[in-house]
Every structure is written in C-alpha cells, then in structure tokens.
Design brief:
The protein has one domain (3-9, 16-33, 44-185): Rossmann fold (3-Layer(aba) Sandwich), CATH 3.40.50. It contains 5 helices and 7 strands. It has helices at residues 11-14, 18-30, 61-67, 76-84, 164-186; strands at residues 3-6, 50-53, 57-58, 89-90, 104-116, 120-136, 143-160. Strands 1, 2, 3, 4, 5, 6 and 7 form a 7-stranded mixed sheet that branches. The N and C termini lie far apart (53 Å).
Length: 201
C-alpha cells in the first residue's frame, strides 16, 4: 500500500506527541497497517533498484544531544546489515546521480525524544521508505509536491540517559531488518533459465 502526503516533510510531522506515538506503535505492531493488494497491483517496493539512506531526523537538537540520539552514526549497524546482505543501499555521499527510469526510494529514520528530568529518555523511533514527486491529483489540475510513502514502521523505546543512544541504534537495526524482509518479499521471483544446456565439444 502506498500513501501520498501533500507537501514536504516538516516540523509538524516531527512534532507529534508521545501520546500519538504510543497509539501509532500499537497500530504498527498490531498489524493494522498490513498491506492490502488488489488483483493486478504490484507490491509497494517491487522493482525498487536503489535505496538512499538518510541520517536520522530528530525533533529537538538539544533533547537529542542529552539523550544521545544526535549521532548520525546511529544508523551504521542498520546500513551495514542491509549492505552485507546485498540490498541496494547507499549513503548520500556514495550515491550516483539518478538515472532516468531508475526506481529509487529514500530510507528516512526519525527519532522523536523526550527527556524526563535528565533521568531517562523516551523515544519514538521510526523508519520510512519514501520518495518526493510532483504530481497532478484530480480534480485540481495543478502540479503539487507530494511525499509518497511505500513502507513505514515505528517503535516506542525507553531507557536511562546513559544507554539511550545504544537502545535507539538497536531499534533502528531491528526496523532495518523488517524493511529488508519486506523489500525481499516484494521483489518478483527470478525467471527460470529455460535455455538448453550447452553441449560439450
């Protein structure tokens, strides 16, 4: 299932309350967001040939610093897992220019954190596969910028301040594995090799 969101991602998305995060975590974990496909439609990640990873987007730089979630290296284990298993994942510095006809999505981590009086931290950790497009959506015949969401999962985590960065990194690793499983299941099966065996001289 593909979702369209009008306009660029902004502060409104990052400013969701932790109460909403709890509701969202229940929805995601309960399977209510499971894909529903009509006959003849392709899975949402089918044919994607390039996955561009982004550094984590945080809601508040000061809170992220106090909770240890401001480090861009939090995604290293997740990216390494996907690359080691052959997924077409690249970092922005390693990405080649987009080729006409290439299907590329961005893998965007988000960390929305709350620091409880400096004692412990609670974070909503999400991972989204998305792309930005300019589309005409009727009945208004005017181009508009939309964000297309192909896949999204999130978890609510809590720990003391000293270990929170590691907990968030482990959560992103777990979400990355779920994304990898979904990406693999969405790809069409390989066509069988029907060529006759070559004759030895």
């Amino acid at each position: 299932m593909v979702f369209l969101q009008q306009g660029p991602r902004g502060a409104g998305t990052l400013g969701l309350s932790l109460g909403l995060a709890i509701v969202c975590s229940f929805v995601f974990l309960s399977g209510a967001s499971a894909q529903t496909m009509n006959l003849g439609t392709a899975p949402s990640l089918s044919g994607v040939t390039s996955i561009l990873t982004q550094v984590p987007v945080v809601n508040d730089a000061e809170v992220a610093s106090s909770c240890g979630t401001a480090d861009p290296d939090l995604i290293n284990d997740m990216v390494g897992y996907l690359q080691d298993r052959g997924f077409p994942v690249v970092r922005p510095l390693d990405a080649k220019p987009l080729i006409l006809g290439e299907a590329r999505v961005e893998l965007v981590p988000e960390v929305v954190s709350f620091n409880n009086q400096g004692l412990d931290c609670v974070s909503w950790v999400a991972l989204t596969a998305q792309s930005q497009k300019t589309l005409v959506i009727l009945p208004v015949a005017q181009p508009r910028a939309v964000t297309i969401t192909y896949w999204r999962r999130g978890l609510l985590v809590s720990s003391n301040v000293a270990t929170h960065g590691r907990v968030v990194a482990e959560t992103l690793y777990s979400l990355g594995k779920k994304f990898g499983d979904r990406y693999k299941s969405d790809q069409p099966p390989a066509l069988p090799d029907l060529r006759p065996p070559s004759k030895k001289p």
